[in-house]
Amino acid sequence: MKIAIITDQHFGARKNSKLFHDYFLKFYNDVFFPYLEEHGITTIVDMGDTFDNRTGINFSALAWAKDNYYDRLNRMGITVHTIVGNHTAYYKNTNKVNAVDLLLREYDNVYVYDSASEVTIGGLDILFIPWINKENEESTIRSTQSSNCHCAMGHLELQGFRVNNQLVMEHGLASELFEKFSKVFSGHYHTRSNDGRIYYLGNPYEMFWNDVGDRRGFTIFDTETLEHFPVDNPYRLFYNIYYEDTNHQTFDFREYENKIVKVIVRKKTDLKKFEKFIDRITDVAAELKVVENFAIQESENFEAFESEDTISILNRYIQEAEIDLDKATIRKVINEVYREACEMI
Q: How many domains is the chain built from?
């Protein structure tokens, strides 16, 4: 039996941005639902962070999620197994109050897991592992140790895997805790990475600047063979344009319509031509940034590269700095602050 695995959908992201929801919807309408229908997929595993805001829900975002996602899945007769993630748990020390349980009770095809649970799908026993916190850490570890399931699926924060293209997680649980399972699939980190047994599958679409050029989508998993493969989302939202006295009259601006664009200036010898170029891209882009210098002062020991975004520069700056502090902790704090700042924009 083939099932679809999707994770970190973050409905309501960026303050319920219409731009982002329109981008999300294009993926669902053009890629996700057509694939399910064409291949007869009847079961989905949602590995967490279905909604974006941990403490509340925008009514418009909820209506969007129901109208464009859950109602459609219900009409198609698709069963959805939903694991609680850190963005859907209201409290940080328990999963008992969570968005997916409270908001989706009307759907009899949606099953919510707020504690470690063994579930059989397509003849395969799978251990579902929701977000691990102080309340459930001991019981979750006991469940993993006693389980006879071949596979585990969860919302895990494990050491040694990529949070994004620039950062490898140095905190969290050791992956050895899950070595008994043939395969482990997880959400939480939005970038795909694996060690050959544990697979972070990545989220369906770009959400931040550090997602540029990173493959996104969902995963098909065969419960009989334990084989899996990604189905990529071909649509992008974030684009870098490198300006080198680029001629605005011959440049094709159509690709950047309703996109979030960063113009990185490499060469600018004619200010009027540059301004005309910026005017043209402003006419089509949804959001525009122009990068001509870097906030971090360069020195002989540190060079900021024009292709890097803000968070990658900060992470590399911290890594290369000569300081007697825990660099992993500093990077984690900086990344959390940066992400919260992005969500407020």
A: 3
| Distance between CA atoms of residues 313 and 303, nearest Å | 9
How many whole angstroms separate alpha carbon 334 and alpha carbon 176?
28
Residue 286 scores a pLDDT above 50: yes
Q: 338 and 195, same structural domain?
A: no
Tokens 């695995």 correspond to 5
154, amino acid identity:
G
Token pair of 68, please?
A: 């464009």
Taken in order 218, 99, 14, 307, is the CA torsion positive or negative? negative
Reference 76, options 46, 37, 45; nearest CA is 37
Domain that holds residue 185: 2-232
CATH code, domain carrying 40: 3.60.21.10
Find how far residue 264's CA is from the centre of its chain: 25
- The verdict on residue 39 lying in a domain is yes
Structure tokens at 107: 């759907």
DSSP category for residue 218: E
Length of the chain: 345
Contacts (Cβ under 8 Å, ≥6 apart) of 203 = 7, 8, 9, 10, 49, 187, 190, 216
Q: What is the pLDDT of residue 300?
A: 52
% the chain with pLDDT above 70: 91
The pTM score is 0.86
- Write down the pLDDT at residue 345: 45
Q: Are residues 342 and 216 in the same domain?
A: no
Q: Where are the alpha helices (DSSP H) in 135-270?
A: 137-146
Q: Are residues 53 and 133 in the same domain?
A: yes
Q: Rounded distance, CA 320 to CA 69, Å? A: 44
Same domain, 142 and 32: yes
What is the chain's alpha carbon radius of gyration, rounded to the nearest angstrom? Answer: 22
Residues sharing a CB contact under 8 Å with residue 80, sequence separation 6 or more, in sequence order: 43, 44, 46, 70, 73, 107, 109, 110, 111
